[in-house]
Amino acid sequence: MMNSTKSRRKIVPAVVENGDTADKQDQLLLSSAICNGEDLGPFVRKVFASGKPETLLHHLKHFTKSKESEIEDVCRAHYQDFIMAVDDLRSLLSDVDSLKSSLSNSNSKLQNVAVPLLTSLDSYVEAKNKCSNIALAINSLNTCVQLMELCSRANLHLTKNNFYMALKCLDSIETTFHDKTPSSTLKRMLEKQIPAIRAHIERKVSKEFGDWLVEIRTVSRNLGQLAIGQASAARQREEELRIKQRQAEEQSRLSLRDCVYALEEEDDDEIDGENGILGFDLTPLYKGYHVHQTLGLEDRFKQYYFENRKLQLTSDFQVSSMTPFLESHQTFFAQIAGFFIVEDRVLRTGGGLISKMDVENLWDTAVSKMCSVLEDQFSRMQTANHLLLIKDYVSLLGVTLRRFGYPIDALLDVLSKHRDKYHELLLSDCRKQFAEALAADKFEQMYMKKEYEYSMNVLSFQIQTSNIMPAFPYVAPFSSTVPDCCRIVRSFIEDSVSFMSYGGQLEFYDVVKKFLDKLLSEVLDGALLKVITGSITGVTQAMQMAANMAVFERACDFFFRHAAQLSGIPLRIAERGRRQFPLIKARDAAEETLSGLLKQKVDGFLLLIENVNWMADDPPPGGNEYVNEVIIFLETLVSTAQQILPVQVLKRVIQEVLSHISEMIVGALLGESVKRFSINAIMGLDIDVRLLESFAENQAPLLSESDANQLKSALVESRQLVNLLLSNHPENFLNPVIRERSYNALDYRKVVAISEKLKDQSDRLFGSFGTRGARQNPKKKSLDALIKRLKDAN
């Protein structure tokens, strides 16, 4: 019946005709709802709402009556089948009874057989339960044992301050055993102790890291000093290698056959904190970093580390006003160098503890501050040596940090910016040293007793005139001024090259040469000029100064070669750009002073020219007295001067003196003290000039034939005047060709003035008695015609 109910078709009410009443319509809807098993609640509410429940009851009764007839029709249709089904059930009942008895018998037999088995099964189940409990207990004990072993291991790591491994043990306890721990007591203990242990480790590691931050400042300073010291040692080795190379070049320049080449093994100390010399301990830092990574506090530790290191760097920038920067600059720069050496190591091995950008930002800050400090300190310095010391240390700092990849161009720019100031200070120092050296000089030849003195004062400046070692004691041709000034100039070159070296500029010879030119042509030349014009009073001093200038000329060649060698420039290139002697003003002044003093001495002897008999009847056979005195003085001068003066200097000086003598002879004829003179007096002057010319010719072995001729040419004015006055045809002076060839040194005005004073032989007091009525002397006639023509031309 349930199945038939479930499978009933849904009944749809028939369409009501237009003439049906509403009551009929409600009855059809109710019947349809009951047949379809729908909810009758809406119908009930509707009738009660309308106040007519009787209508609903009526419709229900009507539906019941309509269904009773349908039931009867169904029962009639299935009655026979029902009877047959009852019969089947009765026959089935007998079968069931027999089956029941059979099952009862089988059950009895099963009970008899199964009772012992069930008893055994109960015992087995009980035993299995006990075994399971024991296995569970064993597993729990094993878990507890493993847990306790981990706890013991964690405690052991804690006692050994191996915090990273202790934290790893705690992580293993939490991940592996926290949920598996069977003991609630153990679980509570773990929940309480693990956070406490972690907090303890964090405090301990933070303290160790704090101690490391304090210690690393001292370590950084020592580290920076050591690294800069290594850079200094490496630079020293390079300098020694360059010195050997220069010696080899010099040796090859002097003798190509004697060159010796050798390969030397060079020790290269690597700046390595792990295996090298610069070792420093980063264990506390990395321990703290790893521990905080394990604790999940990595970012916080990174920030803490960066902020603390930044504060340390800021404190390193503080320059003490109580200590001169010259004394504290090494510590200042070494501290910064050590700081960035440590940061480079942390960057490369710290596993991301600090980023490259952070290090670059710190370096930019450091460079900016160092540049500011250098600018301030350099602006205050007034001593070149102080500036050089700081520059050298800064350049070593740059070399050191460049090896770690830090850019140092800004530092080098600051050094280059103060290049001119440094050289001006250096020039000022040299000016004082030159003044002191010149003031201490007695202008006496140096006396050297030992070979080392010769090497120190002569060979070291390449001012020797011969490569043969002289016998000792040795008297040098120069005074102490020369080696003293050479040492000052050499020191200037070395200081200049030292400042320019390692400053980022590869080719700096032109700069060194420029300031060397300034030192020689302005400072040294000016100091020598001051001494020459103000302190030289005697011939000996002037001669020594002139000799010194000749030696300085050789020394200047050495200075420029030395500057080129120190600058790494080949000598052939340096010699190409050689300029004129930079001390030419002082040299000329020294020679002028010597010549002037010698002229004063000669003037003393030339006073004897007043004793000349200008109206002599016969010429003096051996020359006039004054010329003999002058020649004795000149010969004495040459024998003395040739010991110290170079031949060219001696030639120039004697040439000036002879030229002065020639001028004085002509001047004597022009002077008012000589009213008239005879031809015999001119013949006497001819002998005087010949004696002087003979003196000049006698200097040929000392000088050379051409130099002797140049000395002789210094007497050209007096010689041409005497030749003209003694000539039989003086009117030839008017011939341009003859005048250019034979009288080019004569001034026609002087010729007129002197010729008018010449007295002819026939004009003597008693000469007219014997020659009365004779013709006029042709020579006198020619001379008068010359005088007349010259006056007309004037």
TrEMBL record:
Gene3D superfamilies the record matches: Dsl1p vesicle tethering complex, Tip20p subunit, domain D, Exocyst complex subunit Sec15 C-terminal domain, N-terminal subdomain
Q: Which UniProt keywords apply?
A: Exocytosis, Transport
Query: Which part of the chain is the Exocyst complex component EXOC6/Sec15 N-terminal domain?
Result: 59-228
The organism's superkingdom is given as Eukaryota
Which residue range or ranges hold the Exocyst complex subunit EXOC6/Sec15 C-terminal domain?
Answer: 411-757
Pfam families this protein is in? EXOC6_Sec15_N (PF20651), Sec15_C (PF04091)
The family line of this record is:
Belongs to the SEC15 family.
Give the protein's function: Component of the exocyst complex involved in the docking of exocytic vesicles with fusion sites on the plasma membrane.
Identification of the protein by name: Exocyst complex component
Naturally occurring in which organism (per UniProt): Penstemon davidsonii
